[in-house]
C-alpha cells in the first residue's frame, strides 16, 4: 500500500507543480538511449496577473490567430505590460511542419498540438483566450467582432466585440484553389490538423474499398491512384510519407494491392521543390523515380470532378484526364474573407494579400500589425527614396557626397534597405566604399546625385518577398513581441535607422529575416536539407538531422516526448491502419 | 554514418520480422520500472494459406463483427481447417472497456484499437477481411449480403454477397433509446470509438463556449452541466473520468469555471452500479457524494430537447426539466435492424434479441451461430424436460429411480442444466444425493417421477441470463472457435452430455460462463472491484489492480505499450485539452 500511495502523491505533485521538478523520463530502446529532461521553469510570474483598477490601465492587445506567428508573439510578450486577449477558431497551436507525418500516422495528431491556454498559463499570463473566429475588423473604432465557431446546441450568444489598443493579425492563409472548378468539393488539403486526419482516414478507405470482392481490376487501380497537386515541400513530403506507409505497412495487410498502388505528383513548374537548391530538386526527383512515384512536371490542373482530374500539359497544350482515388491539393495560399474585407476598408483593395511596412505595421491603418502567412512586407525600394537619401546624406548641401558623408549614412541605409546588403554580397563587395568606384574601378572622392543613383541602381533587383513558412512567421512573432516590450523605452530612445523622408530616427529596427535552412524529407529514412551558407545535405544522415531539429523545435516538453515516442512506436510496430 | 545505417537496418528487421525478435522496451519512470517483452511468436503458420483447388474445399466460415466475440473467435480459429471471411463496418478491434478513458483523453483512441488485418496475419490466416456492413442474412440459401460503408466517391460497387457453410454472427448491440423522444438527436453515446472522440470534443466545446465574454452566469452554468443517463459501469466510469478531467486539468485552464461545473448521474433504479455487490454500490455513491457528483436515483428520463432533459421522479410522480450542456446516454442495448429482419425470417419474431441454444447455435436455423451482445442463450429449464430425463435415467423402466440410476445421469444433468449446479451451491448441498432426501431429511433409496420433480423443482429459479459484457463475449468467441477446431473429431466422438430427448450424446459441451470479476473505476485513482469468490475490493490499491489487469488484457503488444505510455503521459503532463 505504501508504494501505491507514494505513486499517487507523486502523481499529484508532479502534475500540480510541474515547475518544481526536474523530471527524468527515460526511454531505453535496443541499446540506443534517449534522455529527456522536462522543462524546469522558475516559479516567477506563473501566477495570474490580477486586474487592479487603481493601476493605470494596461494597453489592450488583441491577437488574432494561434499559428506560428501568434504563438511566437505570445511566447515572448510581457504580460505585465499588456492586457492580452487571443482569438482563434482553434484552441491549440499545431506544429504544422509535421502535418504530412500525421497524414499517415507516423506521428499522431495529438502529439503535435499544444493548447493555447497551457502556453499563456506557463508564460505567466492571465488566460484570456476566446475560441472564436474574427468576422470583422473595425479599424476606425479599434474593435474586432468575433463569433464562436462551436455549432452544437449550447446556450448563449457566441458573438462579441473586443476593443483594442493594438491589434495583431496572425490568422494565416487559407487554401487557394486558383478558382479551379471542383477542387473545393473533391480535393483534400493539408493546412489544418483536421485535414491531415481526414487524409489518413481517406487513404484507408481507398485500400478497404479497393480490395472488396465486387470490384474489377480497373476499379481497384483507380481507387488506389493517389494524386498530389503541387510539388512544393508539403506535397513532396506527403507523397514520400504515403509511399512509405504503403510500402512498409499497407501492402503487407492488403497483399493484393502490391502492384496496383500508384502515386502521382503534379507540378506546374519544371521541377519539384523548385524553391530549393537545384541539387536537392534533382536528388528528390531521382529518389521518387526509384520509388516509383510518378512526377508530372509542366502540368496545370484545370478541373477536378468526382472521379477524374483534368490537366493541361503545358508543352503540348494537350488536355488529359485521369481517374483517381484521392487528390491532395497542396498549392498556394489565399486570403481569408475577413481580411479581404479589411483590406477594402483601408484602401488595400488592389493588393493580393495584406501589406505591411518593414515594421510589420499594416499600411494605411494605425496600431494594427500583421504577420505570418496572412501578410506580406512591402519593402521600400532604394531608387524610390534615392533623392531624399542623397539630401539627408549631403549634410553640407554641396550637391555632392564625399566618402565620409557616404560612410556616415551607409549603416542606416543598410538597415533600412536590406536589399543593398544582399546586393553587396552578390557582387562580393567587402567594403561599401567600393560602390562609389567609377566604371574603371578607380576610387572617387565624391559623387553627385547621378553617380549615387548609378551606384545603387541595381540593389533593388535583390528584393525578394519572404516565403510563407513557419520560420518566417515565428521570427516575425518574436520580433513583434520584442518591439512591444520596448514600446515605451524606444519612444524616447529610438533605436531604428535614420528617417530619410522625415526627421529623427525610426522607433525600432525593421524586421529582418534570418534563414536557417529548410528540410525536405523524402521517405525511406532519407531527407534533403538546405543549410545556411549554401550547404546542401542529402540522404540518411540528413533524416537524422531532421529528427533532431524537429524534436528540438517542439514548443513544449509534452509534444517533444510524444513526437519522439511516436517515432519510436513507428520504428517498432509500424503505422496503425485502423480507420478511426 | 555507421550508427545510422545500423538503426535503419534494425528498424527494417524489427518491423518486417516482429516474430523473430524478443524486443526489450524499457520505460524507467521515477525509480519505478516496467519491463515489457514483445510477443515472441514462432514462425510456424505465419505464411498465408494458398488456395489449392485440388485439395478438398475447406468449409467457408463467414464472421460478422469484430468486437470482443469476433476477435476471440478469430484469435483461436484454425485457419488451416476453415476458409474464414470477416465482415465488419470497422476494420479494427476496439478495447471497449477503456472507452470511458478515451472520452477525456486519459488514453488515446488509437491506443485501444488494433487492425483486424494485423490479427489475421499474425495468427497465420490469409487476409480475407471486408470493411462492410452485413445488410441481409439469407439463411435459406446460406448467403449474406454486404454493403461497403465507405461513403466517399470511390469507384466500384460496394455491394457483394458471400456464401457460407457456417455463419458466425457477432455484430454486437446498438444503442437502445427505449423510444425516448429526442435521445437520438441530442444525446451522446458511448459504444464506439467515434462516440468517445465526439464526447471529448464536446466537453471542450462546453468549456470554450461557457467562458466566452458574451454569456450570462446562468448560461455558463447551463453549458457546464454534464448529465449522464444510466448508472451502470460505463456511465459511472465516464462520470468519474469527467470529474477527474475537470478537477485535475480543466479548471486550471478555465479558472472561472471552478465553481460552476456540475455533473449529474441519472439512474432509474435505487442505486448506481446495481448489478454489482451492495458494498461497491454504496462505496461508489459515497465517493461521488464527496466529489460533488450528483446522483439522482429513481428517475426516468421521458424526453430530451435541444436545451433541456425532462425526467419523472418515480417516487413522487413529478415531472421536472433541467437545462444541460451535454447529455451522455449510457443505458440498454438494442437489436440491429439486420438481425431484427433475420429473426423475422427464422421465426424469432417475438424475441427481444436473437436467441441461441447452449451451444450458441441460433434457434430455428442451421449452421448459424450467434455470440456476444447481439444474442442471448435460451437455457433449457429442467422442469420442461423432467419427464424425459426421468425416462432416460430409469434404465430398467421400473417407474422409480434408484440412487445408483440417479448418480449415473447426474453429471450429464449438471452439464446440460447448469442452473442445478448453482442451486446446489445456493443450498450449500455438497452431495447431489442430498437432493433425494425426503422432507424430514431422511435418505431415500428411490424416488418416483413426482418425487424427482419435487427434488429438482426449484433449480430453474437459479437461471440467469448472462450480462452483456466483454468477458462473456470473449469467452463465447473462444468457446466457439474451439468447437470449430474439433468439429470433425467430435462428430464421431461426441464429448457433450447425454441427449435426454434423443439418443446418444451432444457433440460438444455446452457453453459455460466463468465470471472473473468486474471493475468499476471511480476516479481520483480509486476503483472498486468484485472479485471471484464474493470478494470485494475498493480504493487506491484496486485502481492499481485495475491498471495491471487492463494492461495485461490488451490484445497486442502495440496497444499494451501505447496504453501504458498514455497512462504515464497523463501522470506526467495531464490530459490534453486541444479541441481536435
TrEMBL record, chains A, B:
Keywords: Calcium, FAD, Flavoprotein, Membrane, Metal-binding, Mitochondrion, Mitochondrion inner membrane, NAD, NADP, Oxidoreductase, Peroxisome, Transit peptide. It is a peripheral membrane protein. Its main location: mitochondrion. InterPro entries: EF-hand-dom_pair (IPR011992), EF_Hand_1_Ca_BS (IPR018247), EF_hand_dom (IPR002048), FAD/NAD-bd_sf (IPR036188), FAD/NAD-binding_dom (IPR023753), NDH-2 (IPR045024), NDH2-like_C (IPR054585). It is found in: Mitochondrion inner membrane; Peroxisome. One of its GO terms (cellular component) is peroxisome. Its cofactor is FAD. Transmembrane segments: none annotated. It catalyses: a ubiquinone + NADH + H(+) = a ubiquinol + NAD(+); a quinone + NADH + H(+) = a quinol + NAD(+). Residues 381-416 form the EF-hand domain. It holds the Pfam family Pyr_redox_2. GO terms for molecular function: calcium ion binding; NADH dehydrogenase (quinone) (non-electrogenic) activity. It is an enzyme of class 1 (oxidoreductase). It comes from the Eukaryota. Its EC number is 1.6.5.9. Belongs to the NADH dehydrogenase family. This is NADH:ubiquinone reductase (non-electrogenic). The lineage of its organism: Eukaryota, Viridiplantae, Streptophyta, Embryophyta, Tracheophyta.
Amino acid at each position: 500500500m505504501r508504494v501505491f500511495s507514494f505513486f499517487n502523491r507523486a502523481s499529484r505533485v508532479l502534475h500540480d507543480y510541474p515547475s518544481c521538478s526536474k523530471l527524468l523520463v527515460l526511454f531505453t530502446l535496443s541499446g540506443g538511449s534517449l534522455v529527456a529532461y522536462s522543462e524546469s521553469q522558475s516559479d516567477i510570474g506563473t501566477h495570474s496577473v490580477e486586474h487592479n483598477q487603481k493601476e493605470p490601465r494596461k494597453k489592450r492587445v488583441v491577437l488574432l490567430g494561434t499559428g506560428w506567428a501568434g504563438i511566437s508573439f505570445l511566447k515572448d510578450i510581457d504580460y505585465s505590460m499588456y492586457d492580452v486577449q487571443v482569438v482563434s477558431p482553434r484552441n491549440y497551436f499545431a506544429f504544422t511542419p509535421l502535418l504530412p507525418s500525421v497524414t499517415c500516422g507516423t506521428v499522431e495528431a495529438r502529439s503535435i498540438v499544444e493548447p493555447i491556454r497551457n502556453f499563456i498559463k506557463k508564460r505567466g499570463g492571465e488566460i484570456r483566450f476566446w475560441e472564436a473566429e474574427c468576422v470583422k475588423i473595425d479599424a476606425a473604432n479599434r474593435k474586432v467582432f468575433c463569433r464562436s465557431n462551436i455549432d452544437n446546441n449550447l446556450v448563449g450568444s457566441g458573438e462579441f466585440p473586443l476593443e483594442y489598443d493594438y491589434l495583431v493579425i496572425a490568422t494565416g492563409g487559407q487554401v487557394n484553389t486558383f478558382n479551379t472548378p471542383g477542387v473545393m468539393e473533391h480535393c483534400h488539403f493539408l493546412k489544418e490538423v483536421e485535414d491531415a486526419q481526414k487524409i489518413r482516414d481517406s487513404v484507408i478507405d481507398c485500400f478497404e474499398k479497393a480490395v472488396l470482392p465486387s470490384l474489377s481490376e480497373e476499379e481497384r487501380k483507380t481507387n488506389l491512384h493517389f494524386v498530389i497537386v503541387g510539388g512544393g515541400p508539403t506535397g513532396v513530403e506527403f507523397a514520400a510519407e504515403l509511399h512509405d506507409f504503403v510500402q512498409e505497412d499497407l501492402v503487407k495487410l492488403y497483399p493484393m494491392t502490391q502492384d496496383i498502388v500508384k502515386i502521382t505528383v503534379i507540378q506546374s513548374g519544371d521541377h519539384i521543390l523548385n524553391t530549393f537548391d537545384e541539387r536537392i530538386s534533382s536528388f528528390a526527383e531521382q529518389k521518387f523515380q526509384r520509388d516509383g512515384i510518378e512526377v508530372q512536371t509542366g502540368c496545370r490542373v484545370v478541373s477536378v470532378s468526382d472521379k477524374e482530374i483534368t490537366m493541361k500539359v503545358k508543352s503540348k497544350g494537350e488536355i488529359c484526364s485521369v481517374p483517381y482515388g484521392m487528390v491532395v491539393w497542396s498549392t498556394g495560399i489565399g486570403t481569408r474573407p475577413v481580411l479581404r474585407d479589411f483590406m477594402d476598408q483601408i484602401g488595400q483593395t488592389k493588393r493580393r494579400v495584406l501589406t505591411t511596412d518593414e515594421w510589420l505595421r499594416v499600411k494605411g491603418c494605425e496600431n494594427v500589425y500583421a504577420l505570418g502567412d496572412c501578410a506580406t512586407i512591402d519593402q521600400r525600394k532604394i531608387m524610390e527614396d534615392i533623392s531624399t537619401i542623397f539630401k539627408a546624406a549631403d549634410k553640407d548641401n554641396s550637391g555632392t557626397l564625399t566618402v565620409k558623408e557616404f560612410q556616415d549614412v551607409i549603416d542606416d541605409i543598410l538597415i533600412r534597405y536590406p536589399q543593398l546588403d544582399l546586393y553587396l554580397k552578390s557582387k562580393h563587395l567587402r567594403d561599401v566604399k567600393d560602390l562609389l568606384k567609377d566604371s574603371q574601378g578607380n576610387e572617387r572622392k565624391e559623387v553627385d546625385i547621378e553617380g549615387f543613383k548609378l551606384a545603387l541602381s541595381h540593389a533593388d533587383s535583390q528584393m525578394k518577398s519572404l516565403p510563407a513558412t513557419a520560420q518566417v512567421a515565428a521570427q516575425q512573432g518574436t520580433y513583434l513581441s520584442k518591439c512591444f516590450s520596448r514600446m515605451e523605452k524606444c519612444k524616447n530612445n529610438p533605436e531604428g535607422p535614420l528617417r530619410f523622408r522625415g526627421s529623427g530616427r525610426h522607433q525600432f529596427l525593421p524586421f529582418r529575416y534570418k534563414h536557417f535552412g529548410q528540410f525536405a524529407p523524402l521517405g525511406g529514412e532519407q531527407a534533403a536539407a538546405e543549410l545556411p551558407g549554401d550547404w546542401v545535405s542529402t540522404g540518411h544522415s540528413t533524416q537524422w538531422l531532421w529528427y533532431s531539429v524537429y524534436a528540438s523545435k517542439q514548443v513544449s516538453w509534452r509534444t517533444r516526448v510524444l513526437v519522439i515516442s511516436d517515432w519510436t512506436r513507428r520504428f517498432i510496430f509500424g503505422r496503425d491502419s485502423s480507420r478511426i
